[in-house]
Design a protein that fits this description.
Blueprint lengths: L2 H19 L6 H7 L4 H4 L5 E2 L5 E2 L8 H13 L5 H8 L3 H12 L15 H9 L2 H5 L19 H10 L13 H7 L4 H13 L14
Antiparallel strand pairs: 1-2
Amino acid sequence: MTARTVVAAATLFAAVSAAHAQGVTGSVDAGQKKAEMCIGCHGIPGYQNSFPEIHKVPKISGQSDKYIVSSLVAYKKGERKHPSMRGIAASLSEQDMADLAVFYASQVGKAPAETPRAASVATAALIEKGACASCHGANFAKPIDPTYPKLAGQHADYLFVALKAYTVEGNNVVGRSNGIMAGIAKQFKPAEMREMAKYLGSLEGDLQVVPQSRFR
């Protein structure tokens, strides 16, 4: 899959996603109250998930509200198959998703670097092959569309597990269905995915984990 093909497909996907995302406005205050179901994993620094393998749960504070909604919708539809997230997403209304999304999007960390730290020659070649910057931005923190995730500073082990999930087929509890990302991910061996994830996770970004008390 060439970089040009990726951009064209991503632009079409973004237009479709935007069309489906219109009409619901979120509330930060409402989202804060509803986030009690989320803080047990996403509000604990260093918290790890053990399925399908041990990895840190993703940083969601600082992601765009549209990306958070699109990921929750994907879990609800079964396009993302993580069992616990599917169960949570299935219980959420469009309004719930919108409220949670704007709450977490409001927790932006420090501004990311405009120019990312240079990768090694081998890693840079992998990033170029995957055309990562074509969708996720030149500094991997300003995606071309807000329904795409920021990658810079995300937990490297989570990025690896997420990337690998796009290569899984025919499994009811593991995997992610996305034609664009599947085509990209299937170009790489696991060791190459891990190398890319390590680099992207090492970059400065505005994603963070905001510790929150269960007792509010």
